[in-house]
Amino acid sequence: MKKPFRESFTIHDNNIFINSIKMNISQELEKYISDHMSPEGELLEDLRRQTYLKTPYPNMISGPLQGKFLELLSKMLKSERILEIGTFTGYSAICLASGLVEGGTLDTIDSNDETYEMAAEYFKRAGMESRIHQIRGDALEIMKGLERHYDLIFIDGEKREYTAYYQLAIELLKKGGIILADNVLWGGKVVDEKEKNDPATAGIIAFNKHVVEDKRVELVMLPVRDGLSIIRKL
Fold it and tell me: How many angstroms separate the CA atoms of 88 and 119, rounded?
């Protein structure tokens, strides 16, 4: 029987909770959580393994917990059209697309040439090349030309551009639709005075402030992995 891929980063370093020590979440409890959710699947496990072997920043991958959350949310919304900003190696796109209704499609945007082919390979292996449309280029420029209205938009691109992504995304989102924003706690830097001049940190802080003040939406921020905001358009 094939053993699951459980290197040292699989549970603890994959940050199921943003700060396991402060929240008293032991590695044993994190493993318990992982063992008591639906399995990742061999293809996603292989994609995660190859991401850690072949990319310089593998922690950018969504991973099993967040991936399953994305899939289930997509299913609950009965998503017909999804937009993803930030493809990376394709893990999150496969999870989101797994929740699409029959005939549904996902558009995913990324400017990284190095990971484009890797993502395309796994989309094909997943049998999703007709459902997932890869768009290569600058997300802000591409979004300005989109005319489709989406049920779900996942923001996981350049942190300095989060507010700009959001301003375009809210116009592309159907009423009652959901925007998911990843990394909204940014490793705890959002509350660290020493980090607030860092461009990426400043971008996340500005985004979080902008969204909570936006009367067009309601939201909740979850301390899952690096922080995940769920934003619903009213």
Answer: 7
